[in-house]
Description:
0% strand; 133 residues
Amino acid sequence: MGAPEFDAEETTRPGRGLAIAARAIGASGLTLAVATWAAWLVVRPPIVTAWAYSWVTQAFVLVLGALWFALLPIGVLGLVFGVSAGSRGPGRAGVTLAVLTLLLAFSGAAVFATTSWRHVGPPVAYFDTRTAR
């Protein structure tokens, strides 16, 4: 009446599923981060030179900023899955993709938070106190 014994041949590697999840999350996060940067670079330079911002443009820029902040937990999740999976094969690839996602997300969030807008102000409490003449 002892505990059943398991053969080593019947068990699978415990980190295989985590490695696949890390690679999938890292790849999708990296794709979204690159697409967000591309959209920012297409939309943001013309906005800076414009005198008046439409509410649609402002909403689009805010959505891009929110995407960068949403990519931060996605990158962390991919990193945790990749580290938990081990340092071989798909786990290492998942960690690499997650780190790239985090780098792009951190840089995008920093650019979004520190960009000064002429007449609107950036999302972090910069307001132009000069009066229009």
